[in-house]
Amino acid sequence: MRIYYLLLFFSCLVFGQKSRHDLAVSKIDSTLVRGVDAVIRDYNLRYEVQSFDKIILNTERITTIFNEQGIYDASIGEFYSQNSKVKDIELQVFDALGNLMKTYKRKDFKDEAAVDGVTLYSDSRKLILDFKPTSYPVTCRYTSVMEESSTAFISPFMPLEGYKVSIEKASVSFKMAAGLKLNHASNALAQKLLNKSESDQELSLTCGALGVVTYEYLGEPFIDRVPFVRFSLDKFSLEGVSGAATDWNSWGKWYYQTLLKGTDELPEATKAKIQSLTQNAKSTREKAAIVYNFVKEKVRYISVQVGIGGFKPMLASDVDRLSYGDCKALTNYTRALLKAAGVPSYFTVIYGDDDKRSIDKNFVSLQGNHAILAIPENNDYIWVECTSQDLPFGFAGTFTADRDALVIKDEQGGEIVHTKFFTAEQNVQDFSATIQMAYDGGMKAQIKIENLGVHFDNSYMKTKYDAKKRDAHYKELFSTIHNLQLNDIKYKLDEWQPKFTEVIDVEVSNFIELMGEYKTIHPLALIPDTYIPKRIRNRKSPLILDDAKTLQTDVTVLLAENQTIDILPENVLIDSEFGNYTLRFEKKDNKTCRVVRKLLLKDGKFPSSAYEKYRKFLEQVNRADQNKIILKVQ
Fold first, then answer.
1. Predicted pLDDT of residue 122
2. What predicted TM-score, i.e. pTM, was given to this entire model?
3. Listed residue (354, 367, 375) closest to 405, CA to CA
4. DSSP 27
5. Of 217, 314, 362, 379, which one has the fewest beta carbons inside 10 Å?
């Protein structure tokens, strides 16, 4: 009888270990496994909105991990603060057959401060697990229960959150307390792929299998390639402060009254100093520039996020005393100084990213990850980045340009405004050079590169390079030329235009090439090769060309006394829906040639089928750039 019970016990134990047999890796559809780091087997979010200031979130996420990179996709761990509590957290680990191998409880998770290298202090913390499987694949079932008292921000629902991951099924549901309303907005893919069930107090969204999303060069942003749903409450709490808004104007009023009003007071001595510095300024722009440069010299960027400080800026008086702050604090401090100088300005919430992302103007909610300043000027705005100690005044670089932002116009409320858009005529790079050939086939050249618009943004920080990094940069820039020597490099920064100018003197020991029986020189060898992107088979994403730009080149070649021009290439003209290219060779005399090149690249959104046409256009440009001048050499 004892043996019988032992056998029954072990059979029950084995059955318990096999109870997750559906988690066996072999059960995953083969189409979901190809080229992935992980497959999400089930992703379930359940929100219980008990009041305007209390949400319980239950999370279950089952992920099969195929390699070390896939650990991130399992999303193991939670962030919390004084306004959020981790009520429960657990991780179960299964082998490839679906057998339970190990369970991690809360005591196994590390409790750490959630700070980065630029955060002076934050009350945010995180529970993380040092989880590193010894072999793959493994399957993780992660569960947690969170209690949130700040309800102004509810994370968007994205079943897929990154590249190289697929999903079997996912769902999100809301159960609302009486008297509360949930707002939600879905992108086109969410409307197409998610099944919705909705009543007055409940919402459920579910989806089935979704294949891997592959990164595609010059494609749509990731969130436009996956289902994406935003949520908000009509009544909410932010760090203990209640609010309600139905449009961006009322949202802006709430933001100003709750987070900004009363934060712009300054010591009288500071106000007097600013008024003295700006008293002789002849325009609003000049006053604002003086204030901006004062801020650049006085303060530095350090993040401080305590309680509502994650959203509410530090007092301007504290920034003035301590000489540091985060983007909100420095923007608000600059706003206060401008006020002292008699210049109105508005705190502006924006998504700061080199990839353009706009505030969703059709969905009122807590959005954005950055703050800048908007200074009214002639029915437009001067956009000011207050955290940089290097950017010139009024230059909206690629981090904040060309996107919708929320301008908070104090008591007047909020307004969605589009930040500065650079045209092809403003995004200009002028490259000019004089090449003086030597008797022995070598050459010396002085190169001048003038950068405006996005080209300025991509180049002005070269002034910070040390000699080693600077020389490595230019040797890479001129890497197609052998035996090139850098003789001198000078920079000029014009902050008012703004324009960044590079003057480079180079020398090459042998610039003449043999092409069969001919001796040639390549007059455009000093400009970088046009980048030709790789082919993408079965491309799915539209072609997105973000920034129109103009690249102008003017090269003069002066031959030595033993060299004359024999044959010049034909002029080239290329017209395309993506841009225009001209290349012109002008013979001044037998020893002088001028080469003029202009490449205008358009911006726009094109169908996925246009990608290969775009590649071919760039191939044509690159081939034209390789044209050589044939010489007679004595």
1. 54
2. 0.88
3. 367
4. G
5. 379
Q: How far apart are CA 97 and CA 138, in angstroms?
A: 9
Per-residue model confidence (pLDDT) at position 216 = 95
Question: Beta strand 518-521 with 513-515: parallel, antiparallel or unpaired?
Answer: antiparallel
Neighbours of 124 (CB within 10 A): 17
CB contact at 8 A, 245 and 233? no
Q: Which residues partner with 58 through β-bridges?
A: 46, 145
Q: Is the peptide bond between 137 and the residue preceding it cis, with omega within 30 degrees of 0?
A: yes
Check pLDDT > 80 for residue 543. yes
Task: Tell me the DSSP string of 89-120.
Answer: EEEEEE-TTS-EEEEE-GGGSEEEE---TTEE
Exposure string for 604-633, b = 16+ CB within 10 A, e = fewer: eebebebbeebbebbeebeebbebbbebee
Task: Give CA–CA dist 431/549, Å, rounded.
Answer: 14
Whether 224 shows a pLDDT value over 60: the answer reads yes
User: In whole angstroms, how far apart are CA 391 and each of 229, 345, 387?
Assistant: 35, 19, 9
Each residue of 134-144: pLDDT tens digit?
Answer: 999 999 999 99
Contact of 408 with 260, CB cutoff 8 Å: yes
The sign of the CA dihedral 320, 324, 327, 328 is negative
The tokens of 604 are what?
């726009």
Q: Please state, in angstroms and as integers, the Cα–Cα distance from residue 475 to each residue in 101, 225, 344, 456, 595, following that order.
A: 54, 38, 47, 20, 23
